[in-house]
Specification:
There is one protein chain. The chain is an all-alpha fold. It contains nine helices and no strands. Helix 3 crosses helix 4 and helix 4 packs antiparallel against helix 9. The longest helix has 25 residues. The radius of gyration is 16 Å and the shape is globular.
Length: 168
């Protein structure tokens, strides 16, 4: 990630408010997060945008986090027709039916326990790694898991923001 302004960042800074709001919503479904980032435009550098994202994420309430998580499909079931979801969950390709079945079963148990999808930064992760993390994290207490989710959401947001601002 570059420390200078990129054509993609300049384009994001120049977008009309509605288009910038839509672009940010594609990164993160939390309207509070998007509003905070929108209010601080223009950004001089990608790092300034990432820092604003991190700060906004740190301020999200439990309801804001729930709104953000609602924008993510369960691991193993990317949104049909959504290239971002498919790209991020590429590690599920080639997973055995047994692994997929166990992942589905644990996903449902996780959702029942915590009330939201199991959120993990899936970019570059294998199906086995994600299943291992799910097995571990389902044992967490709700407060600890919420902070892990916040951290995973931060990783996802940074990857998506980088794609947004580095596009030519």
């Amino acid at each position: 990630m570059t420390s200078s302004s990129t054509p993609g960042l300049a384009r994001f800074n120049a977008l009309p408010e509605a288009a910038a709001t839509a672009a940010l919503h594609e990164v993160c479904a939390s309207s509070a997060w998007g509003s905070r980032l929108l209010a601080q435009r223009p950004y001089a550098t990608a790092e300034a945008l990432f820092a604003a994202s991190d700060a906004a994420l740190a301020e999200l309430t439990a309801d804001d986090l729930a709104e953000a998580m609602a924008g993510h499909p369960p691991i193993g079931r990317p949104k049909p027709g959504d290239p971002t979801s498919a790209r991020e969950q590429r590690g599920m390709a080639g997973a055995s039916e047994e692994l997929k079945a166990e992942l589905l079963e644990l996903n449902l148990a996780y959702q029942e326990k915590f009330g939201h999808v199991f959120l993990i930064c899936a970019t570059g992760a294998t199906a086995e790694f994600m299943l291992g993390r799910l097995r571990t994290r389902i044992e967490n207490e709700a407060g600890a898991e919420r902070e892990i989710v916040r951290g995973e959401l931060g990783k996802i947001n940074r990857i998506r923001l980088a794609r947004l601002v580095e596009a030519s």
